């Protein structure tokens, strides 16, 4: 049941996007998310989708992986769309449910736009995490946030925490599966009853999971100390961050996309 | 032979929830020779992991304890901390809980990166360590997609990349299937034989102990036997007292001896058992 979630997993192949600088990928992903909210009409969302499609093709990560990433958020997508559908006024009323809720043409449009935005948002962040190893991601975030060191914030630790969290996603998913199966084997009923009952049924899964996560954390801390980890001071890197022509190309595409979006907004 | 590790009258205790000191190691003395392959056996809770963590400075011995010297460095000295950890590489039981990153190459570089080595040296260390565990073709693989045995070999490579003098493995095969076990053990044996690496193997598998130079049996934080595998396993009473069992071939020959069959006593492996039994049958 949980095996579909592979979000945030690095897919190690060599591609245009893999070889881009991690910092550029992060900045462009954030820029893209901003663009998505600048895009208020169908045409601008369409050019966002098209540019994203080119980036997907340039990752050499199988489409299957992206579909998996997307599948995990379908419920969120549907809920958001439903809210927008029922709670947007304006336009002509298409039909009414009861006396309060009416579905309007504006509602349909907003719901559709919102769903597409979320979809593109998820795919764009999946491009980043599928093509950037957690180590590089960490180093990039650290480098981007390094100005904050002046505020005496421990950016290195922050970035390290994030990369370890990503590293443990598959391990903990596997563990959840094991615990669920063993609780089911003991007769636990996880799939029926009302919401409250189901949440209650999750407790025997969450508690062992939490305990094991703490045990893992303690062991990992020991293992890191054994490998002479002592924070970011004096640490060198196997991978150095360097901008290349690829980053130039990607940034140019983004600038063009931005110009396009601004023009379309004027229309 | 040169002594590389020495513990002299070491005490270690931990504080329980009520603030009482519970001793784990008591007046513990041990010397390990450079290049040897030593196995540590003992029942659960006998203090094996504690010993391992004392040796690389992860734990500090009690105030009244004698010194722990690693290649002449006292683990108690704060300025030796990193150097002691580098020289004494420690590999744990669960490979999933010691891998820090998701790409093999980056994983192996993690230790050397912490040592602040320059980039070309990092690359060299990664190549060398991958070769040592025979996983060159996995350089760019994701660690979470490897088998248990492969993960454990990467964990070992991550330690080797720091060029330790001593490799301590705390039940490295406990979570592995027979194939994974053999992969890991043969990599470790090769390191000992070909590179003269000093190895301390903590294990619950008697068959693994049978193939080492020296077996140390621990019970309640003390050493109850310390000799060659042949000598240790020819004392079944001692092994049982320590809460352990004999390697199966040894157990078999001991039982046959009890039944009155004239068999060679010093049997450790299946091959030796076959040889001893066929010798007896032929002599009859
Ligand atoms: N910091 C600590 N807190 C609580 N108990 C501890 C601590 N350190 C050691 N112990 C206890 O000391 C004893 C020895 O533990 P240790 O882990 O060294 O045993 P072990 O021989 O490695 O056992 P196993 O075969 O189960 O791995 C155990 O009873 C353990 O509970
Ligand atoms: Mg132990």
Strand line-up in the sheet with most strands of chain A: 1-2
Major sheet strand order of chain B? 6-7-8-3-9-10
**Helix segment count of chain A?**
9
Structural class of chain A: mainly alpha
User: What is the string of helix and strand elements of chain B?
Assistant: EEEHEEHEHHHEHEHEEHHHH
Rough shape of chain B?
Answer: globular
Quote the beta fraction of chain A: under 5%
Q: Helix segment count of chain B?
A: 11
Q: Characterize the overall form of chain A.
A: flat
Structural class from helices and strands of chain B? alpha/beta
Largest interface by Cβ-Cβ < 8 Å = A-B, 33 and 42 residues
Features:
heterodimer, A: 267 residues, mainly alpha, two-stranded antiparallel ribbon, 2 strands, flat, B: 284 residues, alpha/beta, six-stranded mixed sheet, 11 helices, 39% helix
Describe the protein in words.
The complex is a heterodimer of chains A (267) and B (284). Chain A is mainly alpha-helical. Chain A has two domains: 1-154 and 241-267, no CATH class; 156-230, no CATH class. Helix content of chain A is 67%, strand content 3%. Chain A has nine helices and two strands. Chain A has helices at residues 22-38, 42-57, 63-71, 74-87, 105-131, 134-145, 155-185, 195-226, 245-266; strands at 93-97, 101-104. Chain A has a two-stranded antiparallel ribbon with strand order 1-2. In chain A, strand 1 (93-97) and strand 2 form a beta hairpin. The longest helix of chain A is centred in the last third of the chain and has 32 residues, at 195-226. In chain B, helix 3 (104-114) runs parallel beside helix 5 (148-160), helix 4 (119-132) crosses helix 5 and helix 5 packs parallel to helix 6 (178-195). Chain B has eleven helices and ten strands. The model of chain B has no long low-confidence stretch (mean pLDDT 92). The longest helix of chain B is centred in the middle third of the chain and has 18 residues, at 178-195. In chain B, the strands form two sheets. In chain B, strands 6-7-8-3-9-10 form a six-stranded mixed β-sheet, with helices on both faces. Chain B has a four-stranded antiparallel β-sheet with strand order 2-1-4-5, covered by helices on one side. Chain B has a single domain, classed as P-loop containing nucleotide triphosphate hydrolases (Rossmann fold, 3-Layer(aba) Sandwich), CATH 3.40.50.300. Classes of the chains: A mainly alpha (267), B alpha/beta (284). The A-B interface holds A 9-12, 133-135, 163-164, 166-167, 170-171, 215-216, 219-220, 222-230, 234-240 and B 53, 56, 58, 82, 85-86, 89-90, 92, 94, 96-103, 105-106, 109-119, 122-123, 126, 140-142, 144, 155, 158-159, 162. The complex binds adenosine-5'-triphosphate and magnesium ion. Residues 14, 24, 42, 44-50 of chain B line the site of adenosine-5'-triphosphate.
